[in-house]
Amino acid sequence: MVQPLAIILAAGEGTRMKSSLPKVMHPLCGKPMLWHVLQSAAAVTAKQLLVVGHGAGQVKDYFGQEYIYVEQRQQLGTGHALQQVLPYLPDSGEALVLCGDTPLLEKDVLEQLVLTNRRQGAAATVLTAQMEEPYGYGRIIRDGEGRIRAIVEEPDLTPEQRSVREINTGSYCFELQALKKYLPLLPQNKNKGEYYLTDLLPLLLAAGLRVEAYKIDDAVQALGINDRLQLARATSRMRERINATLMLSGVTMIDPATTYIDAGVEIGRDTVIYPQTILEGKTRVGENCRLGPGLQLVDTVVGNGVSCRQSVVLESVLQDGAVIGPFAHIRPGSVIGPGAKIGDFVEIKNSTIGKGSKVPHLSYVGDTQMGPAVNMGAGSIVVNYDGRRKHATSIGEGAFIGCNSNLIAPVSIGSSSFIAAGSTITRDVPSGSLSIARSRQEIKEGMGERLLKKEKK
Predict the structure, then answer these.
(1) What is the structure's pLDDT at 52?
(2) For the chain, domain boundaries
């Protein structure tokens, strides 16, 4: 059968978020909450229309031209938002109407919502849920035969209706012919001057049309986000879902509760993730890796068999068998070659470290092309910045950089060359050469003892 279309209401300001960012753009596991809604909607609908208002420019900039945008210039309620879409709707078919702040809804639920509407021949089907604490939600009021009679919002509930636990999630499936006919007839709420989508249901019922409900067992999926507390709860639930999916695909997590992985991150099987590990953005991880504890990867591509712990890696590539950490900082634009080792308290920036090369400890390497099998001694520094510009350094295959050496860029260190410990290199070093660049040691007999005695005084 023909797929329905989706209408996503994303125009609200979200004043309870207390933020300059539009509510639907607040991140949840690395993506705006609206992104999650669109992912589920796109799985079951042919096209998606976004009703935007507050922060419309930010929404459009992020999501691009893939979607149809309809602007609600005045925020006059959910019914008014849906009315803005009427000129874009075909005369027949179905529409899923979803809220942009319900990121936990899964595609299986949306599929069942559409199927229920079709099977029952309904003009509208409401997605409902049973909640133990339904305060703040509109309640589903049914008649003696169990059919929906109305949706009553929290302020308008009678004492008897307050005991109802079935709530309106704010998601619907509408038959388009009925929607286009009766949506323009929505009454204006006298107290707030707004148009509520829930008031459409009495119009449909009064016309003798069928209104049904599809009730989900997992009420958490229906969670709407209105403040930062609810955002944190939804993030926790989404993280559990992401971690469960990865573990079922062959990833081991020592402690899933302290493993934080963004939506869209890819991880190969037999990779083991230790506690306090954060994988963000466009990160992709291969198979048989050991990640963490205490690790953050952002927009990083990791090959197979990589070990990385207690480190920060940003927008870089770690190739097969690389060993990183503990306490390393790999900055953007870096490529750590196969089997290379970056050890403790080492910073790499915009550099390529060749196959099997070692920068084991206490070093800084910036704007450098390092060949394979290079050894960089402890405390060695590439001095790439002259106070105005960054300069490049190249280090050839098999070179040995002695401890506490400074390579003053721009400079080229030839292959199989040897830099003596403590040298400050300012000129290119030919391949196979030994370079010593340090002042001659002088010894002043008795001077040390005299200096120490003065200090004691």
Answers:
(1) 97
(2) 5-222, 250-435
Pairing of strands 166-175, 94-99: antiparallel
Which residues does residue 284 pair with via DSSP β-bridges, in sequence order? 266, 301
Query: What pLDDT does 451 receive?
Result: 84
Class of domain 250-435: mainly beta
Stretch (H or E) spanning 267: strand 266-267
In the chain, the amino acid numbered 119 is R
Give the tokens for residue 352.
């390529």
- The whole-number pLDDT of residue 457 equals 47
Report the distance separating Cα 74 and Cα 175, nearest Å.
26
What are the strands of the beta sheet with 301-302, ordered from one edge? 266-267, 284-285, 301-302, 317-318, 335-336, 352-353, 368-370, 393-395, 411-413
φ, ψ for residue 296, nearest 5 deg: -130, 120
The predicted structure's pLDDT at residue 192: 83
* Highest CATH level, class, for 5-222: alpha beta
Q: 388 pLDDT exceeds 70?
A: yes
> Distances in Å between the alpha carbon of 83 and those of 71, 227, 240?
11, 27, 37
Quote the pTM value: 0.91
Annotated catalytic residues are: 361
Answer yes or no: same fold for 5-222 and 250-435. Answer: no
